[in-house]
């Protein structure tokens, strides 16, 4: 898979660019559904790298932030439907974390379509295929995220804020 590159000046993604999506799938439902899709030979985009977690409630927001920081163009979390969690309330915990995380990602300038949460049971292999393909298309339309490259911009902003704060402190002290 090709590495993400910067968007050309016209705003369109490079022709050869393919999005990289990291998926955190619950062991008991969504991962099993992905396995079902595979053994049923359902075709979906190969842009997704699946990481199996025991429960969607165990996906720490730091995992999502790190995936973006390391070059992912999108992150997908899949868990059991409400009422079906093997850990009783893990998916409710995930839903609360995701609401908070969406705000953080928006503040970072990461578009909403780059981060997705889906409830997919073990028998919904077809839904895995549809969700993956839909997410790949949406992220492809957005183009490369290029978050690692944005860190330079963030550093410049912080330096500017520090300098501005220093000037204000000197003005108040004098």
Describe the structure.
The structure is a single chain. β1, α1 and β2 form a beta-alpha-beta unit. α1 crosses α4. The protein is α/β, with parallel strands linked by helices. A 4-stranded parallel β-sheet has the order 2-1-3-4, sandwiched between helices. The N terminus is likely disordered. The radius of gyration is 19 Å and the shape is elongated. It is built from 5 helices and 4 strands. Helices cover about 45% and strands about 15% of the residues. It has 2 domains: about 120 residues, 3-Layer(aba) Sandwich (Rossmann fold); about 30 residues.
Number of strands: 4
Question: Sheet with the most strands?
Answer: 4 strands, parallel
Strand order of the largest sheet: 2-1-3-4
Task: Point out poorly predicted stretches.
Answer: 1-9
List keywords for this structure.
5 helices; 13% strand; disordered N terminus; Rossmann fold; 2 domains; 4-stranded parallel sheet; alpha/beta; 174 residues; elongated
Question: How are the SSEs placed, and which strands pair?
Answer:
Layout: E1 21-26, H1 30-39, E2 48-53, H2 61-69, E3 74-79, H3 90-107, E4 115-119, H4 125-142, H5 147-173
Parallel strand pairs: 1-2, 1-3, 3-4
Helix pairs in contact: 1-4
Question: What's this entry about, in short?
Answer:
The protein has about 170 residues and is α/β, with parallel strands linked by helices. It has 5 helices and 4 strands, in the order βαβαβαβαα.
């Amino acid at each position: 898979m090709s590495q993400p590159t910067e968007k050309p000046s016209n705003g369109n993604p490079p022709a050869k660019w393919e999005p990289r999506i990291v998926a955190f799938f619950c062991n008991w439902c969504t991962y099993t559904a992905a396995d079902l899709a595979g053994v049923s030979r359902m075709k979906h985009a190969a842009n997704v790298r699946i990481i199996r977690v025991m429960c969607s409630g165990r996906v720490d927001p730091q995992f999502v932030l790190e995936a973006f920081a390391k070059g992912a163009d999108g992150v997908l979390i899949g868990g059991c439907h409400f009422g079906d969690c093997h850990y009783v309330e893990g998916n409710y915990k995930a839903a609360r974390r995701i609401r908070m995380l969406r705000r953080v990602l928006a503040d970072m300038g990461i578009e909403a379509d780059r981060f997705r949460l889906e409830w997919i049971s073990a028998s919904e292999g077809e839904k895995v295929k549809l969700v993956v393909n839909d997410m790949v298309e949406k992220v492809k339309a957005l183009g490369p995220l290029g978050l690692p490259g944005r860190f330079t911009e963030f550093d410049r902003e912080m330096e500017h804020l520090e300098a501005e704060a220093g000037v204000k402190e000197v003005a108040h002290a004098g």
